[in-house]
Amino acid sequence: MGKLDGRVALVTGGARGQGRSHALAMAAEGAAVMVCDIAADLGVVPYPLASRSDLEETVRLIEAQGQRALGLVADMRDTDQVQGVVERVISEFGRLDILVANQGIVNVTTIEKMTDVEWETVLDTNLGGIFKVIRAVLPHMKRAGYGRIVATSSMGARKAHQNMAHYIASKWGVIGLVKACSLEVANDGITVNAICPAAVGTDLFFNQAMYDLFCPDIERPTKQDFENRLKVLNYGLNGRPYIDAEHVSRALMYLVTDDDGVISGQVMDVALGGSATGIH
Question: Which stretches in the chain have pLDDT values below 70?
C-alpha cells in the first residue's frame, strides 16, 4: 500500500531535474502522474531546456514503477495550453488530486542591461505560469473537496542575489501567491504550499552562464572550476555545496501526503543550512 494509492498528480516542468524526481517519488507511493513540459529552448535561457525525449523518458520511468503516466508538451505561459493540460488530466484519469507547479528558468544579467524580453520571459514562466496552472486546477479540486498544491520557489526568495533580479522577483512572488491562495481555499480541503530549494544539481544550476558568473577571473571556466569555487566560498553544509533533486522530493512528499490537510500557506526550505541566515 502506497501513501498516494488512487491519487492523480500533475507535474509541470516534469521532463527532467526536480520535476522528474517529484513525479517518480509520487509514482513510487502509488500515484498516477501526468508530466508536462515546454520541451523546447527559449531564446533568453543560456542553457538547453528539456527535450521531448526527456519527457518521454520520464513517462517511461513512471510506467516502469507500475503506474499510469502521460506526458504532454505545453507552455505554462499560455492560458489555453494550461487549460488544455488540466482538462486532459481530468478526461484521462477522472480526477486531479495533486499539482506540483515546478517549471522554472534562469537568466543571468544585471538590471541595467536586462531587456524587456528577458524580464517578461522569466516572470511569465516562473510566476505567471504557476499562477495560471493553479487557477486552472482550483475548480476541480474545490468540487472534489480535496487538493494538494505545491509550487517551486527558491532560497533566492529568502534573501537575494545580484545578476538575476527577474529570477529573484519571480521566486519571491511565488511565495506571496501561495500564501494568498492558501487563505482563499482554507475551507475547501485544499492545501497550498511552497518549497524553497537551495542550489540543486540540475541544468538550471550547472551551465556555462553560472560558471562564468561565479568564476569571472577564469577564462571559460569548467564545471570543475565552478565546483571548486563553491567550496572556496564555503557554500553548503557538511562538505556538500548543493543538493540533489531527490532531496527536494523528500520535502514534497511530506506536503502531498498531508492526509488531514493541516499544513498550508507554508514555505519549506531545503536549504543546506541557509535558513539560519538571511531575510525571512
Answer: 278-280
